[in-house]
């Protein structure tokens, strides 16, 4: 029941409603009787009309009438009688809709009867105009309108004009804006006459929507449309490669276990691998599918067979920002002095496709060198070898104090390997975005507290910075970051109901600010422990702790990181972290993770050895917000025979432990700290030791 | 939930739901007679969330549910009415609440549902061919509860749902249909159960959904509409499934729901001081459960059944 005031009935109303109830009940039982006995006489039909006029929601009534129509049409040949049968149904629907124009049953009955083909659709727009005038947001009417327009082959241009009229009539008609976006994207997609230039069409649309948002800046309808226009403007159709590992122009040393001593070149990247295998990672600006050896060429003298590319994704999705393949030195290869070039080329043939169906079409290449080196077991195992890793401040020394040459982020500025937009397209983008930004700055001068204006301005500025960085990565310095951060800070105060949304956006911008250039990133790079004295490069730790981050991103800058400290933030999710394939030590302590499903990206990190998830909220909450984003029996993304039972005991039910089993079973952890979580008791620690056979340290103590 | 603007009148709501049976002859009951199966699901799930399902005569309910079973394999909204997928899901959910799915002829029931799938992957509600993404959700949810999802072409079913996705990130009833929170729940739920949430732009949809929260804390179903308790369920469940529920103010929403209680006679209404009904009572209580209101059982956001019921179905009794 909607919109009925809560009040006790007056006695006279009471009597009336009892009478009405009796009448309704009587009609309904007569209808059901006729329905069950297949009685389709005039009198019987009359009863069903009366019932449906009183309550159009009684679906069995409409079903009965359909059977009656089919029955009666079967014996009828006279066109006049057929017309009267059909007209009677149309009349009844009209009455029913006047009573309740949200009645699904009535709308469908009308479609059903008209689809029989005995009646024209000519009257339908008149009827619709009547209903849409009475309720311009009724989505049944809009759906029916699309149905009729399709049946009558009305040109989309005409229906687009109808939305213009409706919008001009009332800017606050979200339904009309919505229908406009549907029709317009169709017209643009099929490049209809007058819609071949996306640039011109979007320019006109901006004009229309400006009127709406300036007339009533508090109304949401136009704003959503504006957001859609912005996305149309700034999202490049074709996906682009934005970073890779190894990076362009780098010299990489793959170290394998051996008893030989070694010396390191100071400017090279080191990657430890017992098998002589190393990953090659591609990171795109949007999720793509179809990366394969047929569209990515890798020249490496030991690579003879086709490479197998895998999307880094926690779900069944075939799409991902990040794709990985593995290159391998032959087993006998131990010539440590020899340097081999690797060249990667893509964009020369089709197959890499974005969600919107656009092909990767920027031919690009990057190259690096690799060499193989044998190192002693202890050194090779690095920080997670024989000693417990200590995340305390005393274990770290800032990199700035050390020769920059040692930093593995040496070539960060060269990560950008994508080709530019065509200059004219970039020109158009700048010419479109600049006045938009100016316009919204102006709006905010007039109406200081306009939340959606601030949000739109922030989005415009972020988009502008992103475009410029993609296109001219070396020259362009993000100029808008501080303004954007300030806008989100304002928004948190202005609209506290949605402060967490603004906080997340703020975190993303802040994180990008910290790591997107070498200078600011180096402030967060530390050497771990004694390794600063030895020359082991892979113990550089990126410390992004105590920053109050609620969300992380910018993974394209982080593909090289092996040790990451995100402790003492406000994170509850690490969506996207699966791209960081080199990660071997991770600190997520003192955050807000509330379930193992939230840590699902870690299951894709094959090198992860050290994990700290202490002092989070695992086991505290009754709802799990990541349950359906990860593999689980509930979403049919794991096999039924996952053997969860194996770990069950009388005091530990499968339902309570399967997530932990799923999560830890795939990991090769040597060190785990998960103290300070509600779930972590003695029973649970026993389960962990069982699940993690390689575990040496649990919660700071040696495992025996 | 630390701060509460009022208290949930558990006893009053239980009494209200139990009293509905006695008011069978009221106009309201007669008008809703055709969807009594939905009513049973709303009322009984509410009782279970409140920990009071034991007050109901389970054999009586099950025997009535089975009277609504139709030879085609589907269930009707009430005895004597026609079968429809809407009531079939409610019947299955009610039986699941009582741990009585074994009374069903599962093959026949899943044949009925799979028979409603169309060439393009969509589902009709019954033999009369109305197509709607609500029915896609129902078919997928129902078959999954019965471990029979392989009876349909899930790939095509998902493809159809994705074709109903809009440029604002939401979903409509059919391709091109306007986004609506109820419809979004159905599509997100269906994608969740089939492990296909990667088709959703979580940030875009999440922002649209969190903007459903209006100043008084309540949620509406579409932009520029009034708030309504039933959207506490549709919007909250969707936000939980895509991990964006922290974008709304939970305490304000709990306050709005509690303000919609009839503190004298029990029941919850769409908005403060409106007439209560079992539909909004269920959505109010289920919404509070999503908000971790103390003392309520947890409810699964995709299957719309208490978590312990779902665990029993998917993990057995261990
Ligand atoms: Zn409602």
TrEMBL record, chain A:
Quote the SUPFAM superfamilies the UniProt record gives: L domain-like, Protein prenylyltransferase
Q: Give GO BP annotations, semicolon-separated.
A: prenylation
State a single Gene Ontology molecular function.
Answer: Rab geranylgeranyltransferase activity
Keywords of this entry:
Prenyltransferase, Repeat, Transferase
Entry's Pfam families?
LRR_6, PPTA
- Which cellular component appears as one GO term in the record? Rab-protein geranylgeranyltransferase complex
Q: Which Gene3D superfamilies match?
A: Protein prenylyltransferase, Ribonuclease Inhibitor
Show the catalytic activity. geranylgeranyl diphosphate + L-cysteinyl-[protein] = S-geranylgeranyl-L-cysteinyl-[protein] + diphosphate
The highest taxon in the source lineage is Eukaryota
**EC number of the protein:** 2.5.1.60
Coiled-coil segments on the chain, per record: none
Which purpose does this protein serve, as stated in its record? Catalyzes the transfer of a geranyl-geranyl moiety from geranyl-geranyl pyrophosphate to cysteines occuring in specific C-terminal amino acid sequences.
Q: Which family does it belong to?
A: Belongs to the protein prenyltransferase subunit alpha family.
From the Swiss-Prot or TrEMBL record, give the protein name: Geranylgeranyl transferase type-2 subunit alpha
Where does this protein come from, organism-wise? Aquilegia coerulea
**Classification lineage:** Eukaryota, Viridiplantae, Streptophyta, Embryophyta, Tracheophyta
UniProtKB/TrEMBL annotation, chain B:
What enzyme category does the UniProt record give?
transferase
Prenyltransferase alpha-alpha toroid domain sequence ranges: 8-304
Keyword Transmembrane helix applies: no
Cofactor(s) of this protein: Zn(2+)
In terms of Gene3D superfamilies, this protein maps to: 1.50.10.20
Which keywords does the record carry? Metal-binding, Prenyltransferase, Repeat, Transferase, Zinc
Write down the chemical reaction(s) this protein catalyses: geranylgeranyl diphosphate + L-cysteinyl-[protein] = S-geranylgeranyl-L-cysteinyl-[protein] + diphosphate
GO cellular component, alphabetical, reads: Rab-protein geranylgeranyltransferase complex
Cite a single GO BP annotation. Answer: root development
Q: Which GO terms describe its molecular function?
A: metal ion binding; Rab geranylgeranyltransferase activity
Q: Which Pfam families match?
A: Prenyltrans
Signal peptide per UniProt: none
List its EC numbers.
2.5.1.60
Per the entry, the cofactor note is: Binds 1 zinc ion per subunit.
What InterPro entries does this protein map onto? Answer: PGGT1B-like, Prenyltrans, Ptb1, Terpenoid_cyclase/PrenylTrfase
- Summarize the protein's role: Required for male fertility and root tip growth.
Describe the subunit structure: Heterotrimer composed of the alpha subunit RGTA, the beta subunit RGTB and REP; within this trimer, RGTA and RGTB form the catalytic component, while REP mediates peptide substrate binding.
Entry similarity comment: Belongs to the protein prenyltransferase subunit beta family.
Write the protein's name. Answer: Geranylgeranyl transferase type-2 subunit beta
